Amino acid sequence: MRADRALALHLAVIALLFGLQYVLSPYHQGNLARIMVLATYATGYNILFGYTGLLSLGHALFFAAGMYGAGMSMRYLDFPALAAFPAGIIAATLLAAMIGALALRTTGVAFMIVTLMFAQAGYLTLLYFNEYTRGDEGFVIPQADRAIGLIDLSADDTRFIAAWAIFSVGLLIALAIVRSKAGRVLVAIRENEERTRMLGFNPFPYKLGAVTASGAFAGTAGAAYALLFGSVGASFAAIQYSIEPLLFVLLGGAGVVLGPLVGSVLMFYLIDYAREVTTAYLIVVGIALVLLILFARKGILGSLRRRSDGWLP
Amino acid sequence: MTLLSAENLVKDFGGLRAVNVGAFDLPEGEIRAVIGPNGAGKTTFVSLLCGRIAPTSGTIRFEDRDITALPAHDRVALGIAYTFQITSIYPNLSLFENVMLPAQRRAGLDRTNDAADRAMVALERVGLSGRAFERAGAQAYGHQRLLEVAMGLALAPKLLILDEPTQGLAEGEIENFNALIRSVAKESTVMLIEHNMNVVMALADRITVLNFGETLAEGTPAEIRANPDVQTAYLGG
Fold first, then answer.
1. Nearest by CB to A188, which of B71, B90, B108?
2. Domain B1-79+159-168+189-237 carries which CATH code?
3. Cβ-based burial of A184 (10 A; exposed 0-12, middle 13-18, buried ≥19)
4. Which of A86, A128, A308, B160 is most buried when burial is the number of CB atoms within 10 A of its CB?
5. Inter-chain contact A187–B74, Cβ cutoff 8 Å?
6. So what's the ipTM on this one?
7. How far apart are CA B237 and CA B231, in angstroms?
8. pLDDT, averaged in runs of 10, over chain A (313 residues)
9. pTM of the predicted model as reported, rounded to 2 decimal places
10. Domain count of chain A?
11. Is B22 on the interface with A (CB under 8 A)?
């Protein structure tokens, strides 16, 4: 029964998001499309950080791998959008598996540093091969190419539905992972890795699976970003895009499936409004985070869950 | 039949030889207590057996198979379960979830048993089934110790290694604990490190005494009680 209640809640959120397109102004509808793509990224990041307890500072690399995997295959190989999208996901997933296999030799702070270094190396590589990647100023995917058959992905309403579909599938996959047997092992590794090993579970393949899955989510979001918003550039591989999903997850609630969505919405609008007031909008973000750590360390949904008997997955 | 044996097992920490056991044999079905003064190398010794740490040299065999190089999680799969000296549970999960994990590990091996049933049975055996859905970290220390034992039981091991399981249990709880271990011993071989001599004398078929990492004596409780070397080691002199 508990399980059904959780599934119903997530389906209701998905339905609510779909309905919002009929209510919101075009400006907010565009924002929400962007938020849902970023929330997909953060939802995957939550599997690694929130559920497995591994803090990566390098996921921008996987986001960029999805973005460039889609963008480059369209630009140089004339892939249609429908083939470029999975190409981006595959590129990011393979890269995440490889980097995960290396970075997981370390733990804790060392893992943060190693992932950060890999991402920085990737970022600099994109700039180094500027001739091909147009890393410094980015390149635009022509509007005519951003279509699947007759469906134009650059139009407001189709773009919203595409972002919504990607997020919805991502959310349900994340829910399924978290509630699976393997998901319980991930939480066990987060809570007490040595104990989990002594219960007969080899932590390494589970942790590698979490890195790879979160990398696949990041790549999906990156490829979707390229196709829906048309821009590809090295700036998406920079450190702030690694920190962004961490902020979303912390704000919304680490280790809650819906946490990243809540965090993405709030942080996006917080930055949006702060920008209107001051150019130093990052100060506002910083203050928000300090308040969060002081008063709601488990994030918004994490704090709510403690009052709801913990049935929220 | 010998279930577990060790030969010339050595562990050095820097210049310190923490364990140096020439020969150790544990027959199937026995309750074996490992005792010794503080710092005698008891925990290090069983950690070598269950694979938490790697030996400097020597051989460990389980059911006639050389497991010296086998990682700890694979030894668990073979049937060696270990409960920690310092309570090591999942404090933020419920008791049921704590036991569900090893039950699930076990159910993955033979699918005839339902993991949830197995988990509840394990909790029931240690007397904690009434608290199954309470948070583990909120339990009294003695109950957390019993939860550790339940996690070991849920693995349905061939060999259950308990590292100071009665530490922190009240006198009244120790009676129940002894009864529990006797019932466990019908299905599993049990090896326990224990400081409480009443528990050792009541439960152990045989006792291994370690001192400075080496086997000082081995025998039945009566033999150990009468051994002058053991008395010297414990009382000093």
1. B90
2. 3.40.50.300
3. middle
4. B160
5. no
6. 0.84
7. 9
8. 75 90 88 94 95 94 95 88 92 96 92 94 88 80 78 83 95 93 91 91 95 97 92 86 91 89 92 83 82 82 72 65
9. 0.86
10. 1
11. no
